[in-house]
Specification:
Elements (H helix, E strand, L loop, with lengths): L8 H16 L4 E4 L4 H14 L3 E7 L7 H10 L7 E5 L1 H8 L5 H23 L3 E3 L4 H8 L16 H5 L2 E3 L7 H10 L4 H4 L19 H18 L6 E8 L2 E3 L2 H10 L8 E13 L2 E11 L10 H14 L3 E7 L8 E9 L7 E2 L4 H14 L3 E7 L12
Parallel strand pairs: 1-2, 1-4, 2-3, 4-5, 9-10, 11-13
Antiparallel strand pairs: 6-11, 7-8, 8-9, 10-13, 11-12
Helix pairs in contact: 1-2, 1-8, 2-8, 4-5, 10-13
The protein binds xanthosine-5'-monophosphate (XMP).
Xanthosine-5'-monophosphate binds next to loops.
């Protein structure tokens, strides 16, 4: 990981603007902006370089957070950014493309295909022959490492963008890490809502509505994520959200349960241990793993903050027992009748290549859980994801 102290945003911007002018020449360019720090910084940088020859589009995929399309539109078109932004509503196309798919990687591929179809149609309409993208270093490092197909990785995977989509690709942030992009955003005068914004993946809630996509599941993910973001922002985790999956479970091994109970200082009767049928992504060594989600119950009677080290030990033991395990979740509410389980995810990280679980007070997690149950009648139980990266990824898919 690079350290931002060595990074000089001013000289980066000066060189990048020059390079953008040289690469784009007198052509028109298009950029898809999500309101996140990478794409917005990239758009502001390119706008500085080529002005009105840049067309910025916000594609509403239907997988955005509550109120996000309107909020992002307002923020990006207002001073100081003043970006010429066009809002494109494409929810139906994305839902249709993902319909019936439950495998994480297939969902990502379908999302990507639709995303570039919509974008290239817009590029043709606007006479743009260059695509500018805010791809950053961890995006291609993880995609090439086989951990996941990041939606914006094309050239690095050998995709000929000119042939396939009709545009040349320019990626001015491709060597930067997240903290460096934030420094560039601040230097360009972006509002704090942009420069300090927590990351949100391109495929949005589609990777947080785990397994097959339904409107209902996406709605639960949207509402639960909103509750999590509202309550946890004061703790400033690097990233925090909710993921949703079907609450279908199978019991686990008795000996393992005894061992984990001892480790967590609980009696065997107090602990429940099971596997969900849903699967979630993780990292094993340098490779992507698509593995099992384990649920634990019995911890919630404890007070204070989440004991991250103790959970790390329990996760290691569970992974040793079954190398397919990529997630361990700990219940924060009682179970009731309902279709979906919700996992609260909150991590601390600088570079997003590795991440630690945020040490939040149990009382706050229980409060968030209670609110999710109140507002989402289809939810049976709420959990806290206690898995570091590795073995988990930050996102569930
Ligand atoms: P993972 O889940 O791989 O995530 O640990 C690391 C960071 O990357 C974000 N992420 C994405 N960002 N397109 C993006 O623009 C994607 O397809 C994507 N997938 C994951 C994730 O939110 C986290 O910050």
């Amino acid at each position: 990981m690079r350290v931002s102290a060595e990074f000089d945003a001013a000289s980066f911007v000066e060189k990048a603007v020059e390079e953008l002018r040289r690469r784009i020449g007198d052509r028109r360019a298009i950029i898809a902006v999500s309101g996140g720090v990478d794409s917005t910084t990239c758009a502001a940088l390119t706008y500085r370089a080529i002005g009105r020859d840049l067309v910025c589009v916000f594609i509403d995929t239907g997988f955005m957070r509550k109120g996000e399309p309107e909020e992002v539109y307002r923020r990006l078109t207002a001073p100081p950014l003043n970006l010429p932004l066009k809002l494109i509503r494409a929810k139906d196309r994305f839902f249709k493309a993902l319909k019936g798919l439950s495998d994480a990687e297939q969902k990502r591929m379908a999302f990507r295909k639709t995303f570039y179809e919509v974008l290239s149609e817009e590029a043709r309409k606007e006479g743009c022959t260059v695509l500018v993208q805010g791809t950053i270093a961890p995006d291609w490092i993880e995609t090439l490492g086989g951990i996941k197909t990041q939606h914006n990785i094309l050239e690095q995977l050998g995709v000929d963008t000119a042939k396939e989509y009709g545009f040349d690709l320019v990626e001015p942030l491709v060597d930067l890490y997240k903290d460096q992009v934030r420094a560039v955003a601040r230097y360009l005068g972006a509002p704090v809502e942009v420069s300090e914004r927590q990351p949100f993946p391109g495929p949005g809630l589609s990777v947080r509505a785990v397994g097959e996509i339904t409107e209902e599941k996406v709605e639960v993910a949207r509402e639960a994520s909103w509750i999590v973001e509202e309550r946890l922002k004061e703790f400033k985790p690097s990233q925090y959200f909710a993921a949703v999956f079907e609450d279908e479970r199978v019991d686990s091994d008795r000996h393992l349960k005894q061992e984990i109970a001892r480790m967590l200082k609980l009696s065997e009767d107090e602990l429940q241990l099971y596997c969900f049928k849903a699967r979630a992504t993780g990292v094993k060594g340098d490779a992507r793993a698509y593995g099992k989600i384990v649920g634990l119950e019995g911890w919630r009677r404890l007070e204070g903050g989440v004991d991250v080290d103790l959970f790390d030990m329990a996760v290691k033991r569970l992974v040793h027992w079954d190398p397919e395990v990529t997630r361990v979740l700990c219940a924060v509410t009682e179970r009731r009748h309902g279709k979906y389980a919700v996992a609260i995810r909150a991590v601390i990280t600088r570079d997003f290549m590795t991440a630690k679980v945020a040490r939040l007070p149990w009382e706050v997690l229980m409060e968030v859980g209670k609110k999710i149950l109140e507002r989402c009648p289809a939810v049976s139980q709420v959990f806290y994801d206690v898995t570091s990266k590795p073995p988990a990824t930050v996102e569930f898919e």
